[in-house]
Amino acid sequence: MWIALLAVMRKELRQTFRDKRMAAILLLVPIVQLTVLGYAVDLEVDHIPTVVCDQDRTPASRELADAFVATSIFERKTDVIDAEQASDMLESGKAAAALIIPAGFERDVQRNIPASVQVLVDGTDPNRAQIAANSASQFLLDRAVKMTLALVEQQASALGRAVRPTQARIVPRVLYNPRLKSATYMVPGVAAMVLLIVTTIVTAMGLAREREIGTMEQILVTPLRPSILLIGKCLPFALLGLVLVPAILTVGSYLFQVPIRGSLAVIFTATLLYLMTTLGTGVFISTISRSQQQAILGGFFFLMPAILLSGFMTPIENMPWWIRPITYVNPVRYFVEILRGCLLKGAGFSELMPQLLALAVFGASILTLSTLRFRKQLG
Questions:
Q1: What is the pLDDT of residue 164?
Q2: What's the CATH code, domain 48-158?
Q3: How far is Cα 193 from Cα 30, in angstroms, rounded to an integer?
Q4: Edge-to-edge strand list for the sheet holding 48-54
């Protein structure tokens, strides 16, 4: 049995790596994908192009406009006189935010009359628009509080009274990702996605290729049991996945400074369970495909929903209520949670046991279903 298994594995490895281009695709392309996606998928928002419309043209309005664009969130592109010009720049895409200070702003402030300031934000990019709106609201709220305190002190001074208004200082503390870097959050998800693509598609194509070129029938006339054939074809790609994971972690750690706070044993165990699912899915796709083209299309039909519903790009909590239950039957979700929990938070087996059990159930189920269907086809 062991001789037959090693023979099938050796044959599969030779056939896969005979083409140097295929070897490069399997070993180097995942690292390139991780590098490119790690830099390209950036959720940080800064230097929002901003147009300033100061219709008051007073020292108070100029000081407000300068302070508004002094941070790295907003970048002053140009100044206009008419508010319609600011709206036109947002419509044409030349600016993504507009600060409009109406005439009489300084007069209203000096007379203790509520002064109005308008901020327009381009909402075509929801993420950028939300950050811009929140930043503008926080800035104007801080300015209003400071102006109110200054007015109180001025009035108290005029009355000859000493007033020391109580001030509260809120200092948030961000855990696990203090610098709020997108790569720290995204790289574990990219690793799960790359591993899913490589192992699922290659496994499905390998078995479909055997059937398409007719070598499967030649193998069946040998005294080789279907289970040995299936294991021998899956193990090389499982080993490939186990090689890619350390490489991906190394690149993520040195290139994107992704911390490795947890135990590598947790990651190794989760990877084995995850590979059971991805390889089983690849085998199942190959059993319903008659050609490599069908295997590729079937693979991507599974990959896209699995990636989008894993929480890789957007939090699952932000998804519609009716689609969240579907994510519970998505194994990619649990592997992404394990990677993020282990790498970023240092979570161990006890904290991640629900996700590990879910991966084990999915892996055993899909492997059993794929094996039964594979044997049925061979019979």
A1: 59
A2: 3.40.1710.10
A3: 10
A4: 74-80, 48-54, 97-101, 118-121
Cα separations in angstroms, 175 against 43, 127, 192, 313: 18, 22, 23, 20
Alpha carbon of 223 to those of 11, 115, 151, 219, 229: distances in Å? 16, 88, 93, 9, 11
Q: How far apart are CA 218 and CA 224, in angstroms?
A: 11
Burial class for 102, CB neighbours closer than 10 Å (0-12, 13-18, 19+): middle
Specify the pLDDT at position 92: 86
Token pair, residue 64, equals: 């407000």
- Tell me, what's the pLDDT at 163? 55
Give Cβ neighbours of residue 177 (< 8 Å, ≥ 6 apart).
184, 185, 344
Among candidate residues 152, 156, 170, 358, the one with its CA nearest the CA of residue 274: 358
Longest Cα separation, the chain: 106
What ranges do the domains of the chain cover?
Answer: 2-41+182-378, 48-158
> Would you place residue 223 in the very low, low, confident or very high pLDDT band (cuts 50, 70, 90)?
low
User: Using 50, 70 and 90 to split pLDDT, how confident is the model at 31?
Assistant: confident
26 within 8 A of 198, measured Cβ to Cβ? yes
Which single residue is written with the structure tokens 């929480």? 311
DSSP, collapsed to helix, strand or coil, labels residue 287 as helix
- Give the distance, in angstroms, between the CA of residue 69 and the centroid of all CA atoms in the same chain: 29
The 10 Å Cβ neighbour count of residue 142 is 11
Residue 136 · residue 119 · CB < 8 Å? yes
Q: For the chain, how many residues are written?
A: 379
